[in-house]
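[job 4417] fold queue: 2 targets
>>> target A
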Amino acid sequence: MKIPSRIFSFPRFLKILQSLHLPTRPAGGNVKQVRSKTSDPAARARHTDAVELFGKFYPCDDHTNVTPKILSKVGKSLQNQRNHPLWLLKERIKDHFYTSYLSRHRNPLFSVYDNLSPVVTTEQNFDSLLIPPDHASRRKGDNFYLNQSHMLRAHTSAHQRDLIRAGLNAFLVFGDVYRRDEIDKSHYPVFHQLEGVRLFTKYELFANVQHGEELHLFEKGYRTSCKQESHTLEAVKLLEFDLKQTLNKVVTHLFGKGLDTRWVECYFPFTHPSFEMEIKFQGEWLEVLGCGIMEQQLVNSAGAQDRVGYAFGLGLERLAMILYGIPDIRLFWSEDERFYRQFQVTHIDQKVTFQPFSKYPPLVNDISFWIPHEGYEENDFYDLVRNIGGDLVEKVALIDRFSHPKTGKMSHCYRITYRHTERTLTQEEVNATHRDIERSSVEKLGVEGRF
């Protein structure tokens, strides 16, 4: 009997999964949550010529831009810390998928991975997802590179191709991701995502369709705004319906009925058509997930040429902020017992509404400087502020741009809001931090201070 190409022997399956840096199961039974042999991977992480993470050394080059502050977050795995709000959210989503989607043998249809290494190759993070070499998302200003070939993943989508190649047709990946970004209450350079993928054969997709045996997944057609050139319209419409229904059910499971949501068409290099779901939060529409029909070229490259599928990615912090009423994304990294105690529940579905410890007053300082004609990136400045001010900084806002009429030089003025989540700051300590930021901006970014 011919063995289907998607079925692998158990030893080969294990070998593929081991290449993904999955934790191994101890012989004794229960799975241990393996973080790293070094509890703080960044303790010895940065050398003059290499970055060390999880016992491996990555030689530095002109792409290396990861900072000690970011390295100190690697390996924390907040999604696996019991009674952390991200852990609660993960467990609720897992429970929903485990009970709602079952195979013919009544086993969970979706497999779950929550401890894959955040260190990936640039090929995994970009090329495997069909992201063009000149795409803006590859910029150093937006990512944390260990070197030219390795980086901290910018999305959990970096594992899509490898897991499909390992023979999986339905899976969820929870993990920490890293992006250089602006500074405010809803943005942080380390956050957590859920990635979901589901693939269908012709028989699975059309099983409940009248005369489904006469329908097809593929055709030699044209790409339109509604479909890819190789997909039939009926296949795409069924996939889109199943995808949106699946995600609507997740959101209803988490928030209950009556939540104000909407779907918005968008663009991703690795799905077409693509969509975003937005939730109305505090009077504004907040994007919480992106999804779409997987590009067939990506599916084919993973060895699943006879299948079509969809993928989705959810931002866990944004969902948790809405679900539990957490006002500031920095609180997810708090080690204050007053934070953790609020999430020590007897059941994962127990309702929790976060109660702020206190409202500590903000302290505001401005900084202005002339920027160089070339090479200045706003995210470089935000990253510098993060590295020096850490979680003392609540927000950084560009409040003024000025172009000198004679010299053509450009000046930026930023307002930095300092506020600790657990105590009152003094003007003296804020001024000391602010002076360090001024000095480092001149030394590292090549700006000319107007202090």
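>>> target B
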Amino acid sequence: MQLGIDVNRHKEIIMKGVTALLLLLLKHFKLNHVYQFEFMSQHLVFANCIPLVLKLFNQNVPIFVAAKNSIPALDFPRCMLCPTPELTEEGLEAGDDREVCWRNLFSCINLLRILQKLVKWKHSRTMMLVVFKSAPILKRSLKVHHHLIQLYILKLLKVQAKYLGRNWRKSNMRTMSAIYQRVRHRLCDDWAFGNDLDARPWDFQAEECALRACVEQFNSRHYSGVAQDSQSVVDLMTGDVFDDELYQPSNFNVVSVLSEEIPLSDDFKNNYEEWLEQEVFGSPIDWDAVL
């Protein structure tokens, strides 16, 4: 029994660490450059991150959050300050007065935040939530009485409410009221009354392809390895061929730029004194305007 508890505890620790690292990477990339964030987001989407997260939430989430897979007598710092008692079936849960498992609660919050970052302002990924029938799964998870979990679940329900149809909105008025009360809204937000024209699906694959082409252009411009190893990228939206020379990586090193040798013609070398008189010394400079 002690071995089983320890294995489950290790699974919780790994899940907590992986979800936290993914969330921190997404937040860092979004602050650094939006195309870096989109690059990682597309890799997560192509790796079936959305259905995997929904599969994890397609269980009894309150029981998962309240799971107790730790032995209080062996937890730090109690194991260092107090003598280790004899472990029996009755003594495994002795002294454990926590109502929830903070590791599982933290992991659930991270997964919801990752899912919300992946689908925000992306119609194609929002339709993936609709196709995978995430609305009843997320609605069942609202039974966990934690404000952050409920907030991000309501955000995920808000982005897909337009595509769920009028009948779903009528039969889930309590959820709609909770979204109105807790989620921030914008002035021209039409999530609750989107008509059939707005909710009609269009070519979502073209949207993803256009975003992927922009990300590849960004990588080719800023990372020389990508520009040298990859072939010409074809723009899937317009059919134009990507120009490698236009998006060569820029050199921002002052020392490197100043040390480059610029080829000069023989005419310039023979008449550079006249060029200095005409372009430099003969041109008046308004230093007040320059400063």
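[job 4417] complete. Note on B: The chain is about 60% helix and 0% strand.
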